[in-house]
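haha ok so turns out i had the wrong file open the whole time. this is the CORRECT one, sorry everyone. sequence first:
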Amino acid sequence: MRKYFSLLILFCLIISTHANGQDTLSQKDEFKPSGKISGYFFGDYAYKLSADELQRGNLQYSGLPLDYNSFNIRRIYLGYDYQFSPKISSQLTLAHESGFEANASNTDALTDNNRAVYIKYASVRVGGVIPRADIVFGQQATPTFGLLSDSYWGYRSIEKSLTDMRGISSSTDLGVGIFGKVGKSERVGYDLMVGNNNGAKLENNQFKKFYASLYGYLLDKRLVLQFNYEYNRTESLPGLRGHENLYKAFAGYKTDKATIGVEAFRQLQTNHTRYTPKLAPSDTLYGNAKRSGISIFYHRAIVTDKLDLFARVDFYDPDTRYTSTNTYMKGYSANKEIFSTVGLDFTAFKGIHIMPNLWYDHYHSKLPAASGRMRNDADLVGRITVYCLFNH
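then structure:
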């Protein structure tokens, strides 16, 4: 550990010295340090039109009863970006995010039930150390989806993208990352990052997560292809070492009027489940789980700068290795899910969007004996979403 700590200190000193030298040479008399405040929020009026009888799932409206309705602000961002020099900048963003509404011990609320605020991003970015690349230290956006696929989906105000929504990876992590481009045309890029793998929360173990992304633009930059790999160790079961390997691919195609995207992932979780086999019910075994999913989305302008249509469908299996012949005690799900949403995006004024939409999640049981609403059921929510941005 001392060796790694010494290397980290040396690395930071090299970055500091090199960046200072670069800034001294590159700064001109006309450059003035400056900052910018920006932010946004979105929320809805939501009404539960149909409810899953078994109250399955862990999404925004899972477990809520029929006819449940609420006014809710689901996200608030307030950020400040500061440019110290032409090559050094920083980002600070405070956030409130309201997630699983059926959770009685909601971590998005304080003990007095007021809305909680936490640090979403707090980082410093240094350029010029590596050609065509930036080094970022601190609480920052991970390469998984926030830097590319989220921007193509474009409707985080309606729902998170697939891997975020299903908790496959976090949108933020505390660590160090290198984000760069290759060649003068900069049509190929890469992202590398090492983080705590604990989101915006404090570190609570010795393990780290490794993120890698490679992407490229084709067809006059209308088409983008991205491939991600992530690895981290876990101890999901007491005293038993586990691993998680995530493989993800994204393709997005954008024209002046429309955007279409496809995101797919597969995550192997080693030693994630505990079960007893049917043929040997006295034995307790540990097994691997494999989560997989694919998301397809589309949005297009109906009236330029005034009215857009958006639609999306996801297919998600929390464990493709699940078998009904085993009796599971931990780390399993006997249901597959299909999520979909459709709606209209009306720009009432620049920076203010009003979006009527439907939110739907369908559950299908893998159990052979399942029938009726246990076999197939769904949550359906009608919403009017309001999205407001300022100084963007």
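The helical segments are 2-26, 149-153, 162-165, 372-375.
again sry for the mixup
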